[in-house]
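Q: what sequence does this backbone want?
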């Protein structure tokens, strides 16, 4: 596999609405992002995945786009965006745009036209179906945001498909003209000098809704190859697909360089481990670390040279990992550093979600009025109707709700964490006086500096990028593996629990690379690991 820049960097995800507000309206914006590029440069990252900044009525916080070639008013202007790109590029930071082309907003010009009637030239850009014989919905496809995926259109007497909110009508990828319009739009952004695309729910674009097929449809890869040819194929860009249903074999279809599709995908197999099999993400069960090891090892090994992993614990859709599988109370710092070390030492491109690098935690709510996220609110209403108790639902929301990741970044301990001088669109976590960027930068032992060190280590040590992975056999809650490259061998040891754990190895330590506590590791024989302890040693 030819070496690519996107294999060597660490990517940082910005969720603009919650990153930094520059004008006091309570909403993060592009000028705020420009102001904090120095901070990201200090962290050392090589690329930003930017959640959508396009014009949008914000039914789903920008994932419902009404104009792909305009910037959301609340975020700024195209001039601001151009400046952001230029300033990022100056710092050797590439900007990866979020590409949401499974659907548009219902306020997109294409959909406004399409709704005018069956003869409209844009009609076929979307997915329409006649009512079932009884006049009801065409079939029982469900929206990810609860309820049916079909919405009735009075004027034409047909239904349109929305796999997400009804304000996010699905595009019809069978329509060649529509696909070409998407490619033109992508080229508009490529010409601006962006670093690539993160392709939102891309595994859905090959859907055949009337046959009940949504993910991994038959023409999916054909479309991606066509897109590659028509857009980023001749440019050196990072492309990462969001693919909830990917197995390693499927991931190879997307990311085997010979197939000319994408650089890599986000796979979610491990992410489902704390959900009851066959149920929804809200139906909780404890995570089994032994299973987590099995799954992540499978991904490390099976892609081989036919694909590339993306490594992540967090994003804007997931709860904060230290609250989820770490310990956000007495071991907050240890578990945050341990999760960072465990992830960044694996093979693949690591992603950091904003706030992860300072150990931000989930933000529990006690009443649904505190929720902002459409997925959460719709689920709450649906489950109330189905007879769940309020407490039960709120517990699920506190464990899994997307608002957990969307609380504003606290930049300091001043009012509203210095995120805004106005009223934030969603309240900050109450712990912001303790957990904020300024405090992290002031403390040489903070989580931030562990991330900074991991990013730097990656630049200095090809073994972190290219080394082979081998799992070490240990007790369930110890996650340990080797990386090996050109005769060099690193041993990674992490304790994934609140208890002490036993670990032993015959390897001799040549050098300690990184660790998450102050007690220097001197021997690997018959160790007792402290809760959440993590270290990496070069061994002989
Ligand atoms: C993806 C996004 C999520 C969004 C959904 C619909 O899963 O990450 O935030 O709600 O797609 O666009
Ligand atoms: Ca603002």
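A:
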């Amino acid at each position: 596999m030819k070496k690519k820049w996107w294999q060597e960097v660490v990517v940082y995800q910005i969720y603009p609405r919650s990153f930094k507000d520059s004008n006091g309206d309570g909403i993060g914006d592009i000028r705020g992002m420009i102001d904090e590029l120095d901070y990201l440069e200090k962290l050392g990252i090589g690329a930003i995945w930017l959640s959508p900044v396009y014009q949008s009525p914000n039914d789903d916080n920008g994932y419902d786009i009404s104009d792909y070639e305009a910037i959301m008013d609340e975020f700024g202007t195209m001039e601001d965006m151009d400046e952001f790109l230029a300033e990022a590029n100056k710092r050797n930071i590439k900007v990866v745009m979020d590409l949401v082309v499974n659907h548009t907003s219902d306020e997109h010009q294409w959909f406004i036209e399409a709704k005018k009637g069956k003869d409209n030239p844009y009609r076929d850009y979307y997915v329409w179906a006649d009512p079932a014989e009884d006049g009801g919905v065409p079939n029982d496809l469900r929206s990810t945001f609860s309820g049916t995926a079909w919405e009735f259109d009075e004027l034409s007497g047909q239904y349109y498909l929305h796999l997400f909110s009804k304000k996010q009508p699905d595009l019809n990828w069978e329509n060649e003209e529509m696909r070409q319009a998407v490619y033109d739009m992508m080229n508009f952004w490529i010409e601006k000098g962006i670093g690539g695309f993160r392709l939102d729910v891309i595994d859905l674009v090959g859907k055949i809704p009337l046959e009940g097929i949504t993910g991994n449809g038959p023409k999916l890869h054909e479309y991606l190859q066509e897109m590659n040819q028509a857009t980023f194929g001749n440019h050196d860009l990072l492309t990462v697909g969001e693919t909830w249903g990917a197995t390693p074999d499927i991931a190879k279809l997307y990311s085997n360089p010979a197939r000319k599709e994408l650089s890599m995908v986000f796979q979610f197999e491990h992410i489902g481990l704390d959900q009851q099999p066959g149920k929804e993400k809200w139906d909780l069960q404890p995570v089994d670390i032994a299973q987590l090891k099995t799954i992540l090892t499978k991904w490390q090994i099976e892609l081989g040279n036919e694909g590339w992993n993306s490594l992540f614990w967090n994003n804007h859709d997931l709860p904060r990992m230290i609250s989820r599988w770490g310990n956000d109370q007495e071991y907050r710092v240890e578990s945050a550093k341990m999760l960072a070390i465990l992830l960044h030492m694996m093979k693949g491109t690591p992603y950091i979600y904003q706030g992860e690098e300072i150990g931000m935690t989930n933000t529990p709510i006690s009443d649904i009025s505190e929720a902002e996220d459409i997925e959460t609110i719709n689920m709450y209403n649906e489950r109330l109707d189905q007879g769940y108790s309020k407490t039960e639902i709120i517990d699920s929301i506190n464990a899994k709700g997307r608002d957990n990741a969307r609380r504003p970044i606290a930049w300091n301990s001043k009012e509203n964490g210095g995120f805004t001088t106005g009223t934030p669109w969603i309240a900050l976590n109450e712990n912001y006086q303790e957990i904020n960027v300024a405090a992290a930068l002031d403390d040489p032992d903070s989580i931030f500096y562990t991330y900074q060190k991991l990013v730097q280590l990656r630049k200095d040590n090809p073994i972190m990028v290219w080394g082979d992975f081998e799992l070490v056999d240990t007790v369930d809650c110890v996650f340990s593996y080797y990386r090996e490259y050109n005769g060099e061998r690193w041993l990674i040891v992490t304790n994934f629990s609140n208890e002490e754990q036993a670990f032993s190895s015959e390897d001799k330590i040549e050098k300690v690379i990184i660790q998450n506590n102050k007690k220097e590791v001197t021997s690997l024989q018959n160790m007792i690991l402290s809760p959440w302890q993590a270290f990496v040693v070069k061994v002989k």
